[in-house]
Every structure is written in C-alpha cells, then in structure tokens.
Amino acid sequence: MPGRQTVSSINTDDESDPIMLSPPISMKNRLRNFFGIPKPIENDDCSWSANTLLCATVFLEDAVNYRSIVHKVTKNYLFIYRWFSSSLIQKLHRIALTINLCLALFERPSSFSVTSDVRDKPDRIAFPYSLLMIIEGLTLIWFLLYICTKTACLGIKHARKRFWFIAFFIVTIYSLCEWFVMIAIIRHIYDGIRLRRILRPLFMIESSQLMKKALKAVQKDLLTIIACVAMALAHILFFAIIAMFLFPRSETVNDSEGSTYFASLHDSVFQLLVLYSTANNPDVMMPGNIDFFGIELEIIIFILCSLAYSDNRLNVLFFLVFVIIGIYWIQNIITAVVYRAFRGYFLNSILNSQLRRRLAIRASFEILKKQILNGGSNENTNTVPISVVQIIVNSASMNKWHSDRINQRLFELQFETDVIDLDQYSKIMQLLDVNPKLVAEIEIQTLNDNLIDRFKAVGRSKIFDSIGTLFALLSVLLATIEVSNRHLHSEYDKLVAQTLLISFANLSLMIYFVFEIIMKAWSFGPDKFFRSSTANIFEAVVAFACLILEIIYLAIHGSPAISESDLNITQKQIPFLTLWEALKTCNMLFIYRLVRFLPASKNIQIVVGTVIDEIRNGGAFFGVLFSFYYAYSILGMELFRGAIGDLYTRQNQTNILVCGTYEQLQYWPNGFDDFFSSFVTLYNIMIVNQWFVFVNAFRSATNSKWSELYFIFWYLFVTTIGLNICLALSGDIHDAKKKRADEHEELIVSNMFDIYRSQINEPLPEVIIQKLNAHPYIDFREKLCEGIHIT
Fold first, then answer.
1. From CA 744, how far away is CA 724, in angstroms rounded?
2. Is 451-562+574-600 assigned to CATH 1.20.120?
3. Residue 378 in 3-state DSSP?
4. Which residues form a coiled coil (predicted)?
5. Yes or no: is domain 214-291+299-343 CATH 1.10.3470?
6. N or C, where is the chain less crowded by C-beta within 10 Å?
7. Residue 129, Cβ neighbours under 10 Å: how many?
8. Chain segment 724-782, per-residue pLDDT in tens
9. How far apart are the first and last CA of the chain?
10. What mean pLDDT is predicted for residues 602-620?
C-alpha cells in the first residue's frame, strides 16, 4: 500500500500544494528545541552583517510571541535579550514563581497535617527553616537578576515609565532586605507580620501581560466601581439609622428586633450588611434567635410575606424596600459597571497584540532593507534577497509547522524572483496567524475496496465512534450500580450475587475500549490520531489504565467482583483508596465522552464552546483573582493565627453553646492557622451564606470589632469584582461565539485569537509607520531605512 501523504489547507490566495517539509532535525537541534535554547544564526554563506541578521531575527521572534520591539538593538543587548526572552529562561522564571508561591505551604506553620481541626491538635510536619530560607533567597535573587536584565534591555529611561517594572523592583528589593534580616538577625523565633509573603503574587502579575491588562481594565473604571460600592454602603447606613428608629431597643422584651439586631449603630449596620448578602434573611426580620440558615434568594419574598410581620405586619415594608433597592437595583448597577469595564477586553487586547505583531514584522523587514554596519549604511533598496529571509526564518524560534509553511512559500517565490518586497513579506508572515490545530488535513490516499481498507473505513466511521460512546456510557452506568450495591449490601455473598454478572460485563467493555483505540489508531494512523486531539490521548490513557487495573485485580482476587477485604474496609470507614475503588474511579472517567453528544445543535455548541474557551483562555482573570486570594490568605494568617485555638479553649472553659454560632455549627477546621486552611476558610466565606458566622467567631476570638473589616472587605471584593469579572468573561466569549456561529465558523477553538479572528482588522500603515518612527533606539524616519542608525 502506498505511503500516506498529508497537506494542509492554509487560508491564503495560493492553492494548497504539498508542503515541502524541512530536512530531518539532528539530535543536537532536537535537544536545543526541547530546552528552548535560541538557535544560532548560520550566515557562513551570507555576506550580510551578523548584527543585521541578529536584529531582524529578534524582531521576527518578537512578532511570533506578540512582543514589543521597544528594546535596545546593539549586538550585546540583542544577544542578552534573545536569551532572556527564550523559552528556557521563561520556563525557569515560571518555575521560580511557582516555587516562591508554594513556599507558603511549607513555611511555619506548615499545611502538612492530617487535619486542620483545632480539637485534634494537628501534628504538623516542620520543614527545616534554613532550607526554606535558602530556597526563598534563591528565588528572590533570580527575580532581581530577571528585572535588572529586563530593565537593561529596555533601558532605564523607558523602564521607569512602567508601573509594574517599578513595583516589581521595589518589592524584590524589600523582600530581599526582609529575608536578610530574618535569616541573619531575627531567625525563626519571629511570629510577627512578614510582609514579603503578602507581596509574592505581584511577581506573578508582572510576568503576565494579560494579567496586567486585566488589572488595567479594572483601573479604568475603578472610580465608578468605588462610587457604586459607596452608594451601596450609604444605602446600608441610611437604613441602619432608620432601623434604629423603627425598632428601638426594649428594656422589657429581650428578643425584640431592636434588642437582638439593632441595639447599636454598629450592630445595625452589620446586620443590614449581612441582610444585603441575604445570608441572615429572614432572621433579622424575626424577633428571637430563629435559625434560618442557607435561605435562597428566590424564596425571600415568600418568607417575608408569611413570617416577617410577627409583631407588626407593616414591619415587612422596611425590609422589602431595603432588599429591593439594595439587591435588585444597586447590586445590578455594580454588575453592569464591572461588566462594562471588561466588555470588549479580550478584543482590545487581541487588537493590541495584532498591532505588535505587524509592527515587529515590518521592523524585521526594514532592518533587512538596510544593512547595519557600525551605524552606517551600504546600499538602498526596497527589496530583500529571499535567501537572507530564509536565514532569519530558520534562525528564529517558532513553531515547526509555521517554519515549514513559510519556507514553502519562500521556496515557491524563488521560482519567480530572487528578491521579496514588503507586501510579499507581510503576506507570507501572515501565516503566523494560522492556528495549526484548525487547519484541515486532507488525505491524499483514498481507501480501496480491499478487505484491509474496508476495515479502516469502519474504524474511521462515525457509527463506530458512536457505538464506543454508547458503550462508555453503559460502562459508567454499570460502575455506578456496582458502587451503589457495595453501600447497600453488608453481606458479602449477597453482594457478589448481585454484582458478579455486572462485573464481567464491565470487564468485557474494558477489553472493547482498548480494541476501539487500537482500531482507530490503525485506521487513521497513530501519528494523526493522537496528534489531532488531546481527547484521543486522554481516551487511550483511560482505556489502557482501566484494563491494566482490571488485569491486576483479577490476578490478585481471581474475580472482577468486589473482594471481601475491600468490603470490610468500606464498612469500617477507613479512608483508604483500594485497588477496586481506583479501578471504578478510572472507569467513571469515561463519562467525559458524553460531551460528544452535547454539540448536537448550534445553541448547545455555543454554550459548550463558551465553557471550554473560558477555562482555556481565562487564565489572566483567574490569575488576578488567585493573586488576591493568595495575598488575602497570607494576610489572614498574619492577623488571625491561633485565634480559633483560643476560641476553642474559651468554649471548653465555659461549656456554653449558642445555637447557630461557630461553636455550635462545629466549624473548628476553618481557621487561619496555616496557608491551606486559610484558603479553604476564605472559600467557605465566599459562598456567602453564613459568612457572618465566621465574622462573629473571629470578632469574639480577637475581642476586636476591627477584625470584621477583613471579612467585610473580602465579601465586597468577591461579590462586586470577582463574580462580576467571571460574568463579564462569560458574556464576552458567548457573544463572540454567537457571531462565529452566525458566520458558520468553528465554535470550539484553542485560543482567543481564533474566537475573534473575524473581528480583527489589519492596522493602518500610517499607524505602523508612526510606531516605527517612535522607536527609541533605531531611527526609521528617513524614508524608512534610507538611513537607519542605532542609538
């Protein structure tokens, strides 16, 4: 059978021709590509200046990675900048960032204990203090070298105009100073506030262009957001004063609204703020300590009409007006303001990135148009030899798919001429915009009528795939029945009688799944099948893992049914994942194939595509939220470490439990004694319902009403900024998906550029020329390269 050949259809004016692939890569170059080391510029057969080729190569790499071209262009700085921007250095920087952030899990008090419940007095693993300080010191030294190198490449004059550069540098210097004081003078006995830990997320934000843009989007409408929050607080304060008038404190009735909720201005404001979050509704409207926790907003009106006026039916009007104005008007205004701030954020970000790419492509061509030799020029022309362009394309670090296609177009152009002009160069470099994952591959070889090809046609058919999906869902159903029966039957013989046939049926399905993967890989070809979709790789891993676990289980127990030892472990409630449980857990992963049935209609495709792309491309938003979450967790540790332990000791001494309190609800595992526990506690508060229980507990533990501000500010940030950012992100992507659906384009893509591709317009040449003329280190002004001078 003849070998299979593949071509790619690229959205250009040329027709799809077989791609001239690059020659085999040597082992040395494979290692270079794997580690992300910059390629050497091989100009042995070229008389052009090495500095010219290096500058053009760096500009082309800037275009590939959407980077700015504002950096120094002398030979030494170009060499440093190229290494600094290489994949190797960026990976090392991300590793340093990850290590620096993860130190919070290991630092005293560490998060490595079985439980965080203060009643059990958890025995934490204590990691060597000196080792942790050495690791942190190395990361801080790396950050200092990183920012100093970046500043040197950009120039101090331009770096000092960038806020995040200055913030990164100041925080790095402060962190190093505090680190030195801690390790040299104070040592591990210090239990005070360590500010450098709170500032750690800034290192991550500075290293992400999208995170900085997300924060800039917030900053753009920050005053409006603050005004809306201030309006909400003013609304709460006004109604707090009115509540004190309407429900005066009673000396005779202890459980009245005035005595219970509005005894003072502080209590009145706090209770209405909690009501604003609907967490204590309708308790605040009822006399006495009635336990109504976790009430959903949808049933508030019903509860108000039926219970709120136990003393006077007109009392309900106060709470109705407060809730309607606060929740249904002011809160929606805040949502609209934040949504507007991020509306079009992705599109604007992509347009700016597109401008940087086009500017870098133009700069690389303009540099090649005029050789740079010691600040002088040799010749003046509007074209560039194709052979020189091929040198910089092969020297630049870019995706092999793009490199092959660009070289192919240059090779085709060489049949017509030996030089290339700006329009041809720009058009060819537009191949960088093409996403290889969306390029349709065309099978040159057609299947014949012989028996082997007929079997391949079966493996490629949608019916075969649908049958496998139905079997996968059947396997999930059988596994669910097995797990359910294990918990329903305590007698082993009766359990085996109920599940033995199901176990053998599931075993046969495991064998079929492996056969299905082998059949598909053989039909499509292993290379194409596994590289075409990550889902195929995941499906193969799950299928083989299930079969291997099933074989091991059969070898040990002799039957696919649950063993008596596994049943005993379950009945004794031992928290241990047995081999049988691991097998069923892996079996349940086949439920993901249900997603294949979801995109049955265009509307469902839009929803599924929105969810998938929000997860894929929401890293900037989630990174900003994570940064604030991280810093706030560390701040909570510094402020409230040991507070829950003191509260527990006090409760043991008094032995008094008040209904609905932190102590009565057994919330003891929630605290700020370690980083992981702080993360979980803030998450529980973020759920909103009963968040005031945490506020009351920590206010009692610290004997300070000021501790409430920590939790109130967290609630305001989550409800006004965090959740609304996610809403804006979802709405923006959904609208873009709708436009793509109306234009009959692919809905599930891999990056934001493909989502907004149809809405991206090419930047005007005048804008590009203006940006080139503003370059601080190269003079492009004299007819664009009739006299380029490095400054």
1. 30
2. yes
3. coil
4. none
5. no
6. N
7. 15
8. 777 777 777 777 777 777 766 655 555 667 666 767 788 888 999 899 888 888 887 65
9. 62
10. 71
